[in-house]
Amino acid sequence: MSTAPAMPSGDGLAVRGLSCRLGTNPVLQSLDLPALPPGHVAALLGPNGSGKSTLLRSISGLVPATASMLSWNGADLRTQTAQARSKHIRYLPQSLPESIHLTVTEAVLVALHAHGALPSHRALDRADTVLHELGIGHLGPGYLDELSGGQRQLVGLAQALVREPAVLLLDEPLASLDLNYQHHVMQLLKRLAREHQLLIMIVLHDLNMALRYADTALLLRRGALLASGAPTSVVSPANLADAFQIHARVESCSKGYSNVVVDDLIQL
Amino acid sequence: MLSAVPAGGPAYRQRQHRRSLFMAALLTAMLALACLDLMSGATRIDVPGLWRLLLSTGPSDPTMQAIVWHVRMPQALMALLVGAALGLAGAEMQTVLNNPLASPFTLGVSSAAALGAALTLILGWRVAGIPADYVLVFNAFALAVACAMMLDAVARRSHIGAAAIVLFGIALVFTFNALLALVQLMANAADLQDLVFWMMGSLARSDWNKVAMMGAGLLLVFPFSLRNAWQLTAMRFGDDRAASFGVDVQRVRRNALLRVSVLAALAVALVGVIGFVGLIAPHIARRLWGEDHRWYLPASACVGCVILIAASVASKLISDQMIVPVGIVTTLVGIPFFVVTLMRRRVL
User: Fold this and answer.
1) ipTM beyond 0.95?
2) Residues from B in contact with A at Cβ < 8 Å
């Protein structure tokens, strides 16, 4: 387990001294993250209100934040607006609104066209390609408001991927998905990170998913980094007690996957 | 970055083709209703008669020619233009405020414009060298913008939900209507009669000059709306997601509300307060054309045209004795629609 090692501003995402206030409430307090290189899946863990979503929104420029360093591949992000950052950083909020009467193809085209025109035939080809890559090409002509929650989540992912971002910031993408879709999405993200050298930061509440799929885990508590490193070292009984106020064990199953078993709540 | 390109375009293009056909059908209906509107009134005209009057082929009554060209034609064109303006304004408002109950009428923009116009009428505000109609429009616009910016300020607060925006809009409607009542109290009998008739929303005082003003306003605004079509579509996914797509959310919302203010101010200043067209038209357009704003915005405008020209025809057919102000017709039709929308969408 390590807490915020010193880090050169080379490849990948560099975050140092990141602070963010929402109103008068200091949500993030001089947060330092370890080096997050391209091709990695970093799980963002922590109890409710620990600042996970705010961290993603700060990196994408959606909320004002201060930092001594915030860069991607050496390029300073602090001087860039949210629009400028969106060229290489894509933030995906929790879920797509339910009541949008757009076809799936149009929903993906929007993500391509909203920041500038692309010839329509090329845009259509790209939208189709991404949808097929995610295994939902057949949904293209269907309407968003007729899809299941899991299908809509995949469409949201297609929107994020269609402009070939370098960094994907996903805020609880597994929320409201059934078990099948949860694993489908995580396997997909893992593959995309490897194949396209994407850095994926993903907020997860399911610690077992983090243990199984993440390369790095970042555990937040009250706006500060409690622990970071390999998921098996971060998700430890001591850290779980500290962050979540629970007595828990981490055990390996017969297939070698680590799982968190909660014994009891810590009585305060 | 991504692998093979599968063919998925045909379904998309087929849908676009179907939407074009819907639009052609709507435009045909609009044209037919416009002809019906020209034929309706105290003196009815048959189809061959209208044909002769419009194309000046064969003998025709000079009085009827004057009625058609100087009374009914400006009224019909004004119905189409105001309907388009209100439909477009409603569509943009519903998108940028992310609220299916938003329209210039329901959230107070029309009431604010009405107050600006009423103050000009009653207090007799004039600017030397500028026609009175322009001063009226400008004052209506000034208050409409003030109202739209207040809505913008409320909508920008992230914790404010759709319900709060509607409630704030209703508060604005009541406030501006109370001030309007105060203005009425100050008016003399002749002005008061004018004001009351105008507040009902009527096409009866349309003339070619007003048609030109409304047309110019629409021509000015519509290209900017279309230019923002993708950004507006993106905003349907919420502010955060739209910003992540690279949309400058604040700027798009502010500009859209400015356009709404121009359209609502012109409509109110020229024909009075006409309710519910801006609410109903976007809902119909959304169901038939979807929410790709390249289609949704022109479709909302066209549906607005059809609603108002149909209301104009209905207002002439309700009674032989008088032409009912068109605002009364749209309100009577609109209220049940408003209630049904409220119940079905569970917005509150």
Assistant:
1) no
2) 1-9, 11-12, 15, 230-231, 233-234, 236-238, 240-248, 286-287, 290-292, 345
Q: For residue B35, which of B22, B57, B52, B51 has the smallest C-alpha distance? A: B51
Tell me if B244 and A128 make a contact (CB, 8 A cut-off).
no
**A134, two tokens:** 């995610």
- What is A13-235's CATH number, 3.40.50.1820, 1.10.10.60, 2.120.10.30, 3.40.50.300? 3.40.50.300
Rounded to whole angstroms, the Cα distance separating B170 from B150 reads 13
What domains, with CATH codes, occur in chain B? 69-345 (1.10.3470.10)
Amino acid present at B256: A
- Rounded to a whole number of angstroms, the distance from the CA of A263 to the nearest CA of chain B is 37
B237 chain-A contacts, CB cut-off 8 A: 96-97, 100, 107, 110, 159
Q: What is the mean pLDDT of each run of 10 residues along chain B (348 residues)?
A: 50 88 96 94 86 79 87 95 97 91 89 90 81 85 90 76 81 94 87 80 90 95 96 92 90 92 90 90 93 96 95 87 85 81 58
- Judging contacts by C-beta atoms under 8 Å, the chain B residues touching residue A23 are none
When scoring B2, B296, B346 by the number of chain A Cβ atoms within 10 A, the one with the most, hence best to mutate, is B2
Contact assessment for residue A108 and residue A160, using Cβ atoms and an 8 Å cutoff: no
Question: Which ranges of A77-178 would DSSP assign to H, the alpha helix?
Answer: 82-85, 104-113, 120-133, 149-161
Q: Cβ(A39)–Cβ(A193) under 8 Å?
A: yes
